[in-house]
Specification:
heterotrimer, A mainly alpha (337), B mainly alpha (308), C alpha+beta (541), B: mainly alpha, 13 helices, 77% helix, C: 541 residues, alpha+beta, 20 strands
């Protein structure tokens, strides 16, 4: 097949000047009706007509809680949040007690994962590092999705000058180097003396929103022309109502995907900022800090990198799974009664 | 459509000036004295400092500095760096190298991201799907400098399949490995975006219709599923091009590539305003153009999208 | 010749800050080794300025400038002076020096090197209008104030007597003045340089053991040097040229060294300290050089003033287990400091009275700290900050280790206060805005005890970060400078160090050592007194 498929418009896909019928006639058609296994008729047929129709969100929730993916990811997330909130329940070792004589040693009794380059207990640091990392990851993601989502949805849905202004603003913020912005923000009088996870969250949100905005904008542009939107509008739904009721729910999938991956990259970005002295103070324990400090040990003592990276992976994994489950639940097309 | 493109291109002007102003101000606002750093911590007489400050207009208030910068810009003079190099020359050296690197990364993440994402989306929950999930997790959780170091050590030093650093002139061949490393995180995004869209579209009406029409499976996948799944991917890639151009600091450092990322990073740390402003301005243009291209692609991918 | 501070910045700033000034040296008899045609590739960082001697104050440019130019002297491997163009440099009063230079040597464009070539170059360097970064090297020469404050074009202390003789009049007596003259700021320049210094810096015409190849400087990629046929002197090239490859990070240079794309790497990345001896068996070396690492305790901090302050300074010094940090963080590649200078300097004495304060003694440290608190309590909840700009060169690691030791040995809260940029760090220092300890370190530009003391601890000295001031110490320094000989001076400087041990304006940590490794293609890699490879001696195999 010609690989021009990617770049041509449907209806003109094979030869723009030839009517479609002529094209089809050249083809040997094997059967006029698709084989049963390729036709998901059951899904259509098995609608239960006796049950009360549910609202969109209620139905989504019903779908969601039935999914094994959702259950597994929820359990994992609850566990991570517990660790983040109450690290002292999980270890009695002080993560900041780092006798240099233990530097880089392997597991010892009472220290199941061994020691860092500085001789800190890796297990204790992974447990205590959850808090700031989860706060940074989670709240940056929430902030970015809220700001980026609103900006992107408005720009994509209304188009015109609003799109021009918002999208170009996004372009400028996109091009601003995070490091430059972070250096400036972190030395603002308000933050210089009180650097915390929240200043890091704020910085990452300011420089992270354009990505989500662009993704949302693209999805909204795609969805706003769909038949069901036209139908809803012709049934008298207001323009804004159509955005909230129909366009947004149908645009969420890519946003969820980007958000769930970005959650992990924000945790790593915190590490980069901290590494440069514009993130968290050195005394704050975080996965990101430990991962970047492990840079020096990669070759000789990879276990120092492994454990915090594993903790980060598990957290990201649980949010990716939650995102998948959410997407499935929200997508009316994939609903099976 | 032509009007639309023209309008978009005209928008570049305010964006460009807005960006230079903002960036100029940000560099101006960074703490520390660039001249004090030039001394390397060694003694420097106040008179020499004053002479250096005057040389770079650093003795002027912000608006005068910016005004002088704009004035020079109109004559296409981008200023000089602290090392006395014309910034235009620095850009001319760094951008082609980084552009090659970014293109390689983009090709890698697009080809493998879309391919793997498509397969994973068609076979959700199977072994392949789970494997690529683990792969994306590794890519997200292990920082680029570590992945870069591992690639460099394993493929460059131990196996000798590639040069561990990029040679003089940064030829395409040397840039393949760095390009892959640079594209890895975005690869995870592309992969998961494709997978999700594909999974979503498999249940769409038009796919059912196409299947019912009797189209072969491969044709349904290619023409109907894939094409309709590409909008979020294309959106992401458009924005990513700019990120790859400007944000390759770590990759460029690991593989010793004299590109835009390290140029920008060093200039930020040194407070070298003309270089930072010039690099960021070019990056803004890259973003604007890439996004215009993306918007045009939307119309090609989905005929329902029209631009007035 | 001066010293410079080892306050490294991130990435490129590292090169700025690490302004080691290379000083060549050599034993002069290696010219015949091998067939001498092998072109050696060596690691370097991008020079921060054009290749102009008086404007080069960092290591990337220093390595190149030292090979391109030849002045009156160069430094031998052990740091001693070896004559290059100097026939004699003499003085009767240590104030007015008469310099005689060898006749008949030329720059690579054929111009003869005369007394005027030196005087013009020095005048140019001292004139503040030219904003040369090594301008302060001329500050002891008479007329400097005029050149500095009013931009006078010439130094009144410099007089050309004839083509091969000039005199230098200093502001005061300086017995070791000739020791300075191997430093790159004192190199001669041809007349063509003054026509367009910017262009000259890109493609200089020079008189050293090497010259820049045509279009030899590809920015951020490499700098190609070819042997100078006309050069005659102690640094005769034993190879067919040096190609400096430019790296942003030591890690990538190390990878290139491992795979044979690089011949010589003169500094190991922190993550290779553990491995370099195994990776390059028989092809590595380590040498203590004239540099040290210290920790500044600013005099303007209330908690560190008076009697309580003295006790706290001692407590901090004794709470640090230097040997353990050297073993665990640096894998034994440093040496515990026993005083304020460096062991390779003539006159070094490891047993200066008072030096026991540098020994690790956590019990005593804790006791002293508590005694201090009885006099004036440490503020409730105050965090002892240790300020440093951070980069990949191992600073973050050792400071974290020290901070951990202070926390556990003194029972206080202490943390690394990481500063992103070198310029921000210098700003804090310059404005007396340090809030606690801060990182410092010195690299001698010429091998002299005074160099490790005067610019750092004299009242009002330009690099006195902690604003230390003790008239008794200042007097000792002056006394040492006026001593009749280097030995006499050294004894007095070491007496001055006794005062420092009482006051502890800084806490000495360790002496630096340089590690180098090389590929199978080369041989005869030797590190000089300043820790830099003696490039001209390297031979091909």
């Amino acid at each position: 097949m010609p690989d021009t498929q990617h770049t041509t418009v449907p209806g003109a896909s094979e030869a723009p000047s030839t009517p479609r019928t002529g094209k089809i006639s050249k083809r040997r058609i094997e059967h006029f009706v698709a084989p049963l296994e390729e036709t998901p008729l059951q899904a259509v047929d098995s609608v239960r007509e006796d049950s009360e129709p549910l609202g969109f969100w209620a139905e989504s929730w019903r779908n969601l809680r039935r999914q094994p993916l959702f259950i597994v990811s929820s359990v994992l997330i609850v566990l991570v949040i517990l660790v983040a909130a109450f690290p002292q329940w999980f270890t009695s070792v002080d993560p900041r007690s780092c006798p240099l004589e233990f530097a880089r040693m392997g597991p010892q009794p009472g220290h199941p994962l061994g020691f860092t380059y500085q001789g800190c207990d890796i297990f204790a640091r992974v447990i205590y590092g959850a808090q700031s990392s989860v706060v940074v990851g989670l709240f940056t993601t929430i902030g970015v999705v809220l700001i980026g989502g609103v900006m992107g949805a408005l720009a994509g849905y209304y188009g015109g000058w609003l799109d021009a202004v918002l999208a170009r603003l996004g372009d400028i913020f996109f091009a601003l180097p995070l490091i430059l912005g972070a250096i400036v923000i972190m030395q603002l009088p308000a933050f210089r003396e009180s650097r915390s996870v929240w200043t890091v969250v704020m910085t990452l949100v300011i420089f992270g929103w354009p990505q989500v905005a662009r993704i949302t904008r693209g999805a909204v542009i795609e969805a706003r022309n769909a038949d069901y939107v036209t139908a809803a509008r012709s049934l008298g739904l207001s323009k804004f109502g159509a955005l909230v009721r129909h366009v947004l729910p149908n645009s969420l999938a890519p946003v969820i995907v980007v958000a769930s991956i970005s959650l992990g990259t924000y945790i790593v970005a915190e590490a980069t900022l901290s590494f440069l002295g514009i993130g968290l103070p050195a005394s704050v324990v975080s996965w990101g800090n430990d991962i970047s400090s492990a840079q020096i040990s990669v070759r000789n003592d990879p276990h120092i990198l492994f454990w915090p990276a594993l903790a980060l992976s598990i957290t990201v994994l649980s949010f990716i799974m939650l995102g998948d489950a959410l997407r499935d639940a929200l997508d009316p097309k994939s609903r099976k009664a | 459509m032509l009007m639309y493109m023209l309008r978009r291109l005209l928008q570049m002007l305010p964006v460009f000036f807005g960006a230079t102003l903002l960036v100029y101000f940000l560099v101006f606002a960074t703490p520390g004295d660039p001249i004090a750093a030039l001394s390397g911590g060694k003694p420097m007489s106040p008179n020499v400092e004053a002479a250096l400050r005057a040389q770079y207009n650093l003795d002027q208030p912000f608006w005068i500095q910016y005004g002088l910068y704009l004035k020079n810009l109109l004559t296409l003079d981008l200023g000089v760096s602290f090392s006395g190099q014309p910034v235009a020359d620095e850009l001319a050296r760094a951008f082609p190298v980084t552009a090659r690197l970014a293109v390689l990364a983009l090709v890698f993440e697009t080809v493998f991201g879309v391919l793997f994402g498509l397969i994973a989306g068609l076979r959700r929950g199977r072994f392949f799907d789970s494997s690529v999930l683990v792969l994306s997790l590794v890519v997200i959780a292990v920082p680029t400098f570590v992945l870069g170091f591992i690639f460099q050590y394993v493929f460059g030093v131990e196996l000798g399949w590639a040069r561990p650093t990029v040679g003089s002139g940064a030829p395409w061949g040397d840039l393949i490995m760095p390009g892959v490393v640079l594209g890895l995180v975005s690869f995870a995004y592309v992969l998961r975006l494709t997978r999700t869209s594909v999974a979503e579209n498999m249940n769409a009406d038009f796919v059912r219709t196409a299947t019912a029409k009797g189209l072969s499976r491969s044709r349904v996948v290619r023409v109907h599923i894939l094409r309709n799944s590409l909008i979020p991917v294309v959106t992401f890639l458009g924005a990513d091009l700019g990120m790859l151009m400007g944000g390759a600091i770590v990759t460029e450092g690991v593989f010793n590539i004299p590109g835009v990322g390290s140029l920008l990073f060093d200039a930020i740390l040194k407070g070298e305003t003309p270089t930072v402003v010039a690099v960021v301005s070019v990056l803004v243009l890259v973003f604007v153009l890439a996004n215009l291209l993306v918007d045009l692609l939307y119309a090609l991918l989905d005929p329902r999208i029209r631009y007035a | 010749m001066h010293m410079k501070r080892l306050l490294q910045g991130v990435s490129v700033t590292a090169a700025l800050a690490l302004g080691l000034t290379a000083c060549g040296g050599g034993d002069g008899d290696t010219a015949a080794a091998a067939d001498g045609s092998y072109v050696v590739t060596a690691h370097n960082t991008e020079p921060q300025n054009g290749l102009i001697p008086t404007n080069t104050n960092e290591v990337g440019g220093g390595r190149v400038v030292d090979l391109l130019y030849t002045g009156l002297y160069s430094y031998a491997e052990d740091g001693s002076l070896q004559p290059e163009l100097a026939e004699s440099v003499e003085s009767e009063d240590n104030i007015t020096w008469t310099v005689k230079i060898k006749p008949g040597t030329t720059f690579s464009n054929g111009e003869e090197v005369t007394a005027q070539s030196f005087v013009d170059a020095w005048n140019y360097g001292a004139d503040s209008d030219n904003a040369q970064k090594s301008q302060y090297f001329f500050e002891t020469i008479k007329g400097y104030e005029e050149s500095d404050a009013n931009g006078a074009d010439t130094l009144s202390g410099l007089t050309v007597v004839d083509d091969h003789t000039f005199t230098v009049e200093l502001q005061g007596p300086e017995s070791d003045f000739p020791m300075r003259l191997g430093y790159s700021a004192y190199m001669p320049l041809p007349t063509v340089a003054f026509e367009d210094m910017q262009a000259f810096g890109e493609a200089p015409v020079t008189n050293g053991p090497y010259t820049l190849a045509e279009n030899g400087w590809q920015h951020n990629v490499q700098i190609e040097l070819v042997p100078n046929e006309d050069y005659e002197g102690p640094r005769e090239p034993a190879n067919g040229g040096i190609t400096f490859k430019i790296y942003d990070s030591f890690e990538s240079a190390y990878a290139d060294l491992q795979s044979g794309n690089l011949d010589v790497l003169g500094e190991m990345p922190p993550n290779a300290l553990q491995n370099y001896q195994d990776d390059f068996p028989e092809r590595n070396t380590s040498r203590a050089y004239a540099g040290n690492a210290t920790m500044v305790i600013p005099g303007y901090l209330e908690e560190f003033q008076g009697e309580a302050g003295q006790l706290r300074r001692k407590a901090i010094s004794m709470a640090i287990d230097r040997q353990q940090i050297i073993d665990q963080i640096f894998f034994g590649t440093k040496e515990v400091a026993t005083e304020f200078t460096a062991p390779v300097i003539e006159g070094y004495n490891p047993d200066i009275p008072g030096s026991e304060v540098l020994e690790h003694n956590p019990e005593e440290a804790k006791k002293l700290w508590e005694q201090a608190n009885e006099i004036s309590p440490w503020p409730e909840g105050k965090v002892l900050k240790y300020t440093s700009n951070i980069d990949g060169a191992g600073n973050k690691e050792y400071i974290t280790a020290i901070v951990n030791q202070l926390r556990s040995n003194l029972g206080i809260e202490a943390e690394l206060d990481a500063v992103t940029t070198f310029k921000e760090m210098r700003d804090k220092v310059g404005q007396d805005a340090l809030e606690g300890l801060s990182r410092a370190g010195w690299q001698g530009d010429y091998p002299s005890l005074y160099n490790f003391l005067g610019p750092l601890y004299a009242t009002g000295a330009s690099s006195n970060d902690g604003r230390y001031s003790n008239p008794e110490f200042d007097a000792k320094l002056l006394e040492g400078l006026e001593a009749g000989s280097v030995e006499e001076g050294a004894a007095i400087f070491n007496e001055a160090q006794e005062i420092l041990f009482q006051d502890l304006p800084v806490v000495p940590l360790w002496y630096q050592a340089a590690q180098a490794a090389w590929s199978e293609n080369v041989d005869d890699v030797v590190l000089g007194w300043d820790g830099k490879p003696l490039y001209h001696q390297i031979t091909g195999k």
